[in-house]
Please model this.
Amino acid sequence: MVLFICPMLFLAGMIDGISGGGGIISLPTYLIAGIPMNAAYGCNKLQSFLGTSASLAKYAKCGLLDWKPAMIACGGAVIGANAATHVMMHLTDSVKSWIIIGAMCFIITLTLLTFRMQFSETDIKKLICNKKNAAQCFGLGLLLGMYDGFFGPGCGTVAMMLFSVLFKYDLHTAVGNGKIIIVVSNLISLISYIRTGNVLYSVALPASAANMIGSYIGASLAVKKGKKLVRGVLLLVTAVLLVQAFIKLI
Model:
């Protein structure tokens, strides 16, 4: 099981480090490997928290973060992630399966849309935190926290797009800001899964190590190169895993 999961989690980490969205590979991988639903969510939260932290360190080192707006958004993410996680833990596996299928279809559509959107590399790197922008950042964090608590995979891609579209951030800073929110929301959700015994450490720890290595390498590539090729790979792998997950879960 670990020999199957670790290479997939390394790939997920690379994709997540570049543009976010690696969870659309990692969560179905746990499920395809036969891990129970709640434990799969718990393992995914631990791996995502550690892996995203590794790529966040690279973005922070390169100065590709706007800390104040991102931390305001984190305040909303804490509330959203906590509420969504508690709801998810009371849903049946059947409902969770359909949430996974629906969310993956949404991410495929979102990934297709990113090919048509024009992101400027000369937009702002620092946002003026007036009352309007602060309120929007908090609301954005609330929505992302809820999404991460309910599903998780693809949250980085959604965060990247929203920060770019709503606040005109350059693409790298948008990705970096999203990673701060994901780290915080994952930590909030992870605490709940640990308390209820839904983290299989014998699987999650080696998978997390593979994911952290992939995330750091992916973040390094993101700083140096573009993301078009990786988005194409992301779309292809997502489509394949969507079919596999559908067969496995339904």
